[in-house]
Design goal:
The chain is built from eleven helices and 14 strands. By secondary structure, it is an alpha+beta fold.
């Protein structure tokens, strides 16, 4: 009898202990995130942690709309910046599965015009080099920043924010409305924006230079071969299979009731905007929708890609012996658009006016995390460190 009582007490204590841990761990995580949220003076933020296809933590902080005290929720929608490039990676691997081309395909074998790098006129640019930012194509700021299209009539904004945008070089000055128009004008010698400033020095593959325009060019190649717009292609092969019903690429696709205000600071709001080169940073989604994507990627969901495609997407692109110039492999390597960090995580961050985002998973533990906030964050490290440490726990 005594043995039975002891056993029951032991089991009860263990169950209570586990229950306490389950309660305190999320609370501990919330406290750490609240500290970072307050320190960075963020308007709103949402954090989700995942494990083996399940959500293990989901918490909002602050507001999607400060003036109306609208909480930032799992259904709040906003731009996610360059986390969008991971969708280009998945779309590209799907296009390769469909046998449109390979990573080694010369882009001039697909494009309806010829791209000529004036600094390497006889050189070849492959799709792989676009994905790891060594193509020799670079972002020419006066042109790239003009590719943002703002919608000041759709909702309230503050003039100080627009003044800051103008000071930073952002302006709604390009008449291009499609990827084909923009890329012809930017990359063809006959184009309106073509020039040496659109290209880096040296041949493709020799130098690393993070490039939004080169990233979006991959999406345009997919358009050419598929006969679909990139928005349609990603809806068919990513958004619909994952039931990401609150996600889209353009302001006109979104329900503005759920769209967060994007802030310069706690008082001043930006107008809503799209990008002509929208694949490189223009996806608008919610934390809830994005967590579906994160869980699918972290568990190599066959609804999206074959296992071979996942393996190729996450294969390091640069050798330690012969890395390109301007990249430090002590911190991270590159996969196909994805960042392969030396701490064991795979992910990408995103920045834009009024936007700060991060998405990652730990390949060893299967755990992952994401956060979205409606303000640009010069340094996300405080939040990222908390989430990465949490995902490393076994």
């Amino acid at each position: 009898m005594k043995t039975l009582k002891t056993l029951l007490l032991t089991v009860t204590f263990a169950l209570l202990s586990n229950a306490i841990k389950a309660q305190t761990n999320p609370d501990s995580l919330t406290i750490k995130l609240q500290q970072a949220f307050t320190q960075d003076s963020l308007p709103g933020m949402y954090v989700i942690m995942t494990n083996a296809g399940k959500t293990t933590y989901s918490h909002g902080f602050g507001y999607a709309d400060i003036a109306n005290q609208t909480p930032y929720s799992a259904n709040t929608v906003q731009n996610i910046g360059s986390v969008s490039k991971t969708f280009i990676a998945v779309a590209l691997m799907k296009a390769i599965e469909l046998k449109y081309f390979t990573l080694e395909t010369d882009i001039n074998d697909v494009l309806p015009f010829k791209v000529t790098n004036p600094n390497d006129p006889n050189g070849k640019i492959t799709i792989r080099e676009l994905t790891n930012h060594t193509s020799g194509i670079i972002d020419n700021p006066p042109i790239y920043h003009y590719s943002y299209h703002f919608y000041p009539k759709l909702r309230a904004y503050d003039s100080i924010s627009v003044s800051i945008l103008n000071q930073m070089g952002f302006g709604d000055k390009l008449k291009d409305t499609s990827l084909v128009q923009f890329f012809y004008n930017y990359l063809s010698p006959q184009g309106k924006y073509y020039g040496k400033a659109n290209f880096g020095e040296g041949p493709a593959g020799s130098t690393s230079s993070y490039c939004n325009i080169g990233s979006a060019l991959v999406a345009y190649l997919i358009e050419i071969k598929s006969g679909l717009s990139y928005a349609q292609f990603t809806k068919k092969y990513i958004l619909k299979p994952l039931k990401m019903d609150h996600s889209g690429w353009h302001v006109s696709d979104m329900d503005l009731k759920n769209h967060a205000y994007l802030y310069l600071d706690l008082k001043n709001r930006f107008p809503l905007y799209d990008l002509v080169t929208y694949p490189d940073g223009g996806l608008k989604t919610s934390p809830g929708d994005l967590s579906k994507y994160l869980m699918a990627i972290s568990k190599h969901d066959k609804k999206l890609l074959t296992e071979a495609s996942y393996q190729a997407m996450f294969t390091p692109q640069f050798s330690k012996e012969h890395p390109p110039k301007n990249i430090n492999l002590t911190y991270r390597n590159k996969g196909i658009f994805w960042n392969l960090y030396t701490n064991g995580t795979i992910g990408h961050d995103g920045d834009d006016p009024g936007v700060g985002t991060y998405l990652f998973f730990n390949a060893a533990t299967g755990k992952g995390g994401l956060f979205l906030c409606n303000k640009y964050l010069p340094n996300k490290q405080a939040i990222v460190d908390v989430l990465v440490k949490e995902a490393a726990k076994k």
